[in-house]
Amino acid sequence: MLLHWPLQAKGLSSTEQKVVTFLGPSGSEFLGIEFLASKLIRIGTRGSALALAQAHETRSRLMAAHDLPEEAFEIVVIKTSGDQIQDRPLSEAGGKGLFTKEIEEAMLDGRIDLAVHSSKDMPTVLPDGLGLTAFLPREDVRDAFLSPKARTLTELPHGAVVGSSSLRRQAMIKRLRPDIEVVMYRGNLQTRLKKLEEGQVDATLLAYAGLRRLGLEEHVTSLLDTDDFLPAVGQGAIGIESRLDDAETLALLAPIHDADTQFRLDAERAFLAVLDGSCRTPIGGLATVEGDKLHFRGKILKPDGSEVHEISREGFTSDALLIGREAGLALKDLAGPNFLAG
Ligand SMILES: NCc1[nH]cc(CCC(=O)O)c1CC(=O)O
């Protein structure tokens, strides 16, 4: 039985818990600890339009799952160092942790209860005491091609200029089209679309998931096939981070968690963790799930696309972490000792 918000708030302390049956996303029932929301649930997020859209989606799912009103939540916008660096690629400025550090500090200080992230931007190692404790059902993982000049990447004129600051996209573009010039391209999604419109570049590649979450899919010219364009690890998956010892928040998140997305992310992040030594290496990795089977594909490239190594592995979803890790080790072997170093 689930109580409703104003009743719950009356006379119940936030530490009171009760075992109840939750209705899962596919109609499955499972036992959990009912979240007795007598305090505000504080959701930490970055302030970009995409980050806010993801925080709002998370809040909506929590409201629906627990029959809570919007007022039960506070969205706490946190500026991260990554948001302040606009002049150079993030891989040079210090990598992925730049988008999470200040948010994680807020969580460890108890200023927020959970944080909503693009899994793609999350480091593989999180601070002690914190974890990615829930994943929303994953969006379309593909990269989108956007251009007023051509329908697809292959149809772009010789010597065209493509804007992208992602090492992976740069290398994959050069692999397919060595004649194309790839230029640095940062800023939020709206800024990038404006630069494209103004003709500063002939085309750009962006995650389809992000464009969809912002309702900007009408700008998409075509979608890239995952065979050529293996997505980044975690692309399209919203991950929720919380304190591992915060049972109340874990119970709150349980009914909005998607198990298949977790399996896929477990494999992909385990793969990345093995190869992560250098964040200067273009890496793609994608796991898919069918029933209790998981299929994983991984790829590393030289930044100029001149060399590529690929791996694929299959197994049971319950072995997701092992499959990803094993694929990473095997790919490292394939590429040889000098590949990741230089
Ligand atoms: N690196 C920025 C970033 N982080 C997550 C997304 C898109 C949303 C997602 O992959 O979940 C984007 C933009 C992009 O790559 O186009």
TrEMBL record:
Catalyzed reactions: 4 porphobilinogen + H2O = hydroxymethylbilane + 4 NH4(+)
NCBIfam families, A to Z: hemC
EC number: 2.5.1.61
Textual note on the cofactor: Binds 1 dipyrromethane group covalently.
UniProt GO molecular function: hydroxymethylbilane synthase activity
Keyword set includes Transferase: yes
The protein's name: Porphobilinogen deaminase
The Porphobilinogen deaminase N-terminal domain, residue ranges: 41-249
Broadest EC class assigned to this enzyme: transferase
Record's function text: Tetrapolymerization of the monopyrrole PBG into the hydroxymethylbilane pre-uroporphyrinogen in several discrete steps.
Residue span(s) of domain Porphobilinogen deaminase C-terminal: 265-332
Species: Roseibium suaedae
Note: The porphobilinogen subunits are added to the dipyrromethane group.
Assembly description: Monomer.
GO BP, sorted A to Z: protoporphyrinogen IX biosynthetic process
HAMAP family xref list: Porphobil_deam
